[in-house]
Design a protein that fits this description.
Layout: H1 2-78, H2 83-125, H3 134-142, H4 151-162
């Protein structure tokens, strides 16, 4: 009977130690979760505060920006430039460019994922280098590089358009 009681006490002591360890671990997890929630609340509060500051700043500068935009549009109309039309074209161009970039990124991801499976095969066979044909090299040499007009050429074309020489201007 004494052996049974002593084993029972040992088992009970071990059980108490395990329960204490598990309760400590659970308590740490709960504290961490509570801390994360508090931090998240602080972040949300700071975000709201920053948004309010930004809105206040934007409200300060908004009248100045709208008047500046009006002035730019008026002066552009004086020179015969349609600012709204240009804005629409720029937006359309940027949308097209964004979609093209997205498609290119998707195709690159697909190529990389497909290329990773074939990369191990190509390493065992050795590297192959794609060489350009002599015809493409010759074509590249014959094309002339684009040049931008110099200031002298620009003033010469301007004087030709106005009918004045550079000395008269």
């Amino acid at each position: 009977m004494k052996g049974f009681v002593s084993r029972f006490q040992k088992d009970l002591a071990q059980l108490q130690k395990k329960i204490e360890k598990e309760s400590d671990e659970i308590l740490k997890k709960v504290k961490k979760a509570a801390n994360d929630i508090a931090t998240n609340k602080n972040i949300k509060a700071k975000t709201r505060e920053i948004e309010k500051l930004i809105e206040a700043r934007v409200k300060k500068f908004e009248p100045a920006l709208t008047s500046f935009i009006r002035e730019v549009k008026k002066s552009a109309e004086g020179y015969g430039i349609d600012v709204d039309g240009l804005e629409k074209k720029v937006r359309q161009t940027t949308k097209r460019a964004q979609s093209t970039l997205r498609k290119a990124a998707i195709s690159l991801r697909k190529k990389k994922s497909a290329g990773s499976s074939t990369a191990s095969k190509s390493k065992s066979k050795g590297k192959t280098v794609k060489r350009k044909s002599p015809a493409s090299k010759a074509a590249r040499k014959t094309t002339q590089p684009k040049t931008t007009p110099t200031k002298a050429a620009a003033s010469a074309s301007e004087s030709a358009a106005t009918g004045k020489t550079s000395e008269e201007a």
